[in-house]
Amino acid sequence: MARGLDHVVVAVSDLDAAAQAWAELGFTVTPENRHAWGTANRLVQLDGFFIEILTVADESLIVEASEGDFSFGAFNRDFLKTRQGASMLVAESVDPAQDRADFQRLGLTTYAPFSFERVANFKDGSTGKVGFDLTFLTDPLIPDLAFFTCRNRYPETFWNADFQRHDNGAAAIGAIFMVASDPSDHHEFLGGFTGQREMRATSLGLEIQTPRGLISVLNPDAYRHLVGDTAANEVTSNLPQIVAVEVVCDGLEKRKVIPAGDALGITVILTPAV
Fold this sequence. Notes:
The chain is an alpha+beta fold. It has two domains: 5-163, Roll (2,3-Dihydroxybiphenyl 1,2-Dioxygenase, domain 1), CATH 3.10.180.10; 169-272, Immunoglobulin-like (Sandwich), CATH 2.60.40. The chain is 19% helix and 36% strand. Strands 1, 2, 3, 4, 5, 6, 7, 8 and 9 form a nine-stranded mixed sheet that branches. The protein has a seven-stranded mixed sheet with strand order 11-12-13-10-14-16-15. The mean pLDDT is 96. This is VOC family protein. It comes from Roseibium polysiphoniae. Residues 1-56 form the VOC domain.
């Protein structure tokens, strides 16, 4: 079964500064939420997809990874030691056990199942319980990124209409962009991760259309052509990496590219709704 995109994790050093930068672009950003393993996040909710702006809030709570066990906190802590940016890509899940079986059948590297609940903080000061079942996997050809599927246990609590209204008209995920030296190297893993075996390969890169959002893997020259020199110059040499998120906006007249800079953590492409 093909899996749509669920969210992207954007690791930043200063959570409040990053949230302010997103808010200045016209996005509604949720209040801060805390994880029991030492990370904190603030979210940008779209229609069935969200951007998780994440930082390490209390390193003493982080549990180290062990054989067969993935550590969300340790992975993002170590990621932030080298740079800010998108550290994880997440696909939706309706059946974690099936996801795990599918990944193992394809020979992908998986880890022990992981589930958790946390308190969600709302604008009016009230709270609610949310919970998720995660199935982690990694790929040796993409060593600086992690991937997982996510089943939302309480979608009626998690998704909030107030958080999905944005001054810039943001409505839906358009695409996640990755840069790789040779995009064709990653078709097997990304196809297995999304459950989408049909994809489009060109001289510029690889495109995988999921039920929610496109994954586009470009070579460095193609990415530079897409976003311009300022955003392209921010891409470091440790490829592959997730470099940009495209958000479809109602009422927008012209496409805009906002480089990650020091605060956003990821280049943001605002695209008019068709």
